[in-house]
């Protein structure tokens, strides 16, 4: 016994070979067995960017209401002025959510403003003429991009936005084109150009129609077929006269209804962006879910007479969602890239705008 005790006492204990040998208080074991603290929830991640975007959008709405400036254009300008906010990466999830999800739902809700009855009320000849105007406008955007040395995707974006419904169409088309094929700076500049052109047209076209001696129908067709954004087209029509405003509304909503076919054809023509390039053909031909939902809402609105408050609140919701999307997109844009692009980047929008006005005026004289 004594020898055994002495032998044990004489042996050295290799503490390093024992698990947690030097961990007198068990910190290492507790650290390994303790539950990993949960990271911030998705809601918490989205909040900073969404909150800042919401404040900026509210400021733009207040300025628009008090000074009569176009809402979407103010959202763009306020967002660009605050684009330093995106330097903090914690704001990125919320801004990206607003620029994507709010855009998609804003387009869906926009379907509450369109019915097939409104479109069919236009008549076959004016509707065919409107199709020609939109096709020529789209082609002019492509031509302007080529003449100014821009990519064809810049021409598609400018031509589609000018031909259909301004910022809403630009946002939808950019989702198909993708940021890997067209820079966010070019996208933001196109949004600014389209919004400025719409504001200019709303102020000038009604007075110009009066100087040219156009009738209510002719002025309504000209304004509805050539002004880009929905609110500016309708406002410009009613600035000429109430009958012209009613006709301009029908023409403009017919253009809005063309958003889904345009996005589908664009997706088919240029192919999917990014990782979707290897998808099977049936997946490539599929419309984005929000465009399908837009068509479903249009069909429901055509078959069922919705209460007027629902339609009115739908318009307000659509404007609010699109304003958030535009503001967030502007916040995420890099001003140094915007300033370095030069005047040539705006040529596709200018070209498409001029061709849109010229074609619409020609058909207004010929058909009405």
Helix content: over 70%
The 3D shape can be described as globular
Percent in strands: under 5%
Major β-sheet annotation: none
Number of helices: 19
Measured on Cα atoms, how large is the radius of gyration?
28 Å
Q: Can you tell me the residue ranges where pLDDT is under 50 for at least 5 consecutive residues?
A: 19-32
Helix/strand order, N-terminal first: HHHHHHHHHHHHHHHHHHH
End-to-end CA span: 120 Å
- Strand segment count: 0
Give average pLDDT, whole number: 79
Category from helices, strands and their pairing: mainly alpha
Would you mind describing this structure in some detail?
The structure is a single chain. The protein is mostly helical and 368 residues long. It has a domain at 114-307 and 336-367. It is 74% helix and 0% strand. The model is unreliable at 19-32 (pLDDT under 50).
Summarize the structure.
The protein is an all-alpha fold and 368 residues long.
What characteristics describe this protein?
368 residues; 19 helices; mainly alpha
Secondary-structure topology with pairs:
Layout lengths: L1 H9 L16 H7 L8 H26 L3 H11 L10 H19 L5 H5 L3 H24 L4 H12 L3 H11 L6 H28 L4 H11 L3 H11 L1 H16 L1 H12 L10 H5 L3 H15 L4 H24 L3 H6 L6 H21 L1
């Amino acid at each position: 016994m004594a020898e055994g005790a002495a032998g044990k006492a004489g042996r050295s204990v290799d503490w390093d070979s024992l698990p947690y040998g030097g961990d007198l208080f068990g910190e290492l074991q507790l650290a390994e067995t303790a539950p990993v603290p949960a990271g911030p929830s998705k809601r918490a991640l989205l909040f900073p960017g969404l909150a800042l975007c919401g404040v900026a959008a509210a400021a733009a709405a207040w300025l628009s209401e008090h000074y009569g400036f176009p809402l979407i254009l103010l959202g763009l300008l306020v967002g660009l002025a605050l684009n330093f906010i995106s330097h903090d990466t914690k704001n990125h999830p919320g801004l990206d959510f607003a620029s994507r999800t709010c855009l998609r739902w804003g387009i869906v809700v926009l379907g509450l403003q369109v019915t097939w009855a409104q479109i069919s009320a236009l008549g076959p000849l004016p509707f065919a003429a409107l199709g020609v105007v939109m096709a020529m406008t789209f082609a002019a955007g492509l031509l302007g991009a080529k003449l100014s040395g821009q990519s064809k995707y810049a021409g598609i974006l400018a031509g589609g936005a000018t031909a259909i419904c301004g910022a809403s169409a630009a946002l939808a088309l950019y989702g198909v084109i993708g940021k890997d094929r067209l820079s966010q700076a070019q996208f933001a500049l196109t949004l600014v150009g389209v919004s400025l052109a719409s504001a200019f047209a709303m102020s000038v076209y009604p007075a110009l129609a009066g100087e040219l001696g156009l009738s209510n129908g002719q002025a309504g067709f000209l304004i509805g077929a050539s002004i880009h954004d929905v609110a500016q087209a309708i406002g410009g029509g009613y600035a000429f006269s109430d009958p012209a405003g009613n006709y301009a509304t029908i023409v403009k909503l017919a253009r809005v209804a063309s958003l889904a076919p345009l996005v589908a054809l664009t997706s088919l023509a240029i192919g999917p962006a990014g990782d979707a390039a290897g998808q099977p053909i049936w997946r490539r031909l599929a419309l984005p879910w929000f465009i399908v939902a837009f068509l479903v809402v249009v069909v429901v609105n055509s078959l069922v007479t919705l209460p007027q408050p629902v339609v009115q609140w739908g318009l307000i919701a659509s404007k609010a969602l699109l304003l958030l999307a535009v503001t967030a997109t502007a916040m995420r844009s890099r001003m140094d890239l915007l300033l370095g692009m030069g005047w040539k980047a705006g040529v596709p929008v200018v070209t498409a705008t001029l061709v849109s006005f010229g074609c619409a005026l020609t058909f207004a004289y010929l058909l009405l």
